[in-house]
Design goal:
109 residues; mainly alpha
């Protein structure tokens, strides 16, 4: 048994988290709730808060199917043209967007 006492007023992220904790013991559900509230951080770097996300229009939880489809499409392009020689404009855009730290992370993934 656990007793949670917290002075939380009105609608707040803290109240949403507390209600989720009272509703379930499923760690994945709690993590999903937290991710929805905080956002995903920088998926290509070290930032742990959604304030610095490299995703401009997408959200990991909301757009998971679209992100999965885009990843499959990107993998198909790479499988056919590993150095993006036939996709020079795409290669240039990627090089401009991805900094060295993110590149090292992608190389390890």
């Amino acid at each position: 048994m656990c007793l949670l006492v917290a002075p939380i007023a009105g609608e707040s992220d803290a109240l949403v988290r507390l209600e989720a904790l009272a509703r379930t013991t499923d760690g994945f559900e709690l993590a999903a709730t937290d991710l929805e509230l905080r956002h995903e951080g920088d998926v290509l770097g070290r930032a742990q808060s959604g304030k610095g996300s490299s995703l401009r229009l997408l959200r990991v939880m909301r757009d998971a199917d679209l992100i999965t489809a885009a990843r499959a499409d990107a993998q198909a392009v790479i499988d056919q043209d590993r150095t993006l020689e036939k996709h020079a404009e795409l290669r240039r855009a990627i090089n401009e967007f991805v900094d060295q730290e993110a590149q090292e992370f992608l190389d390890r993934s």
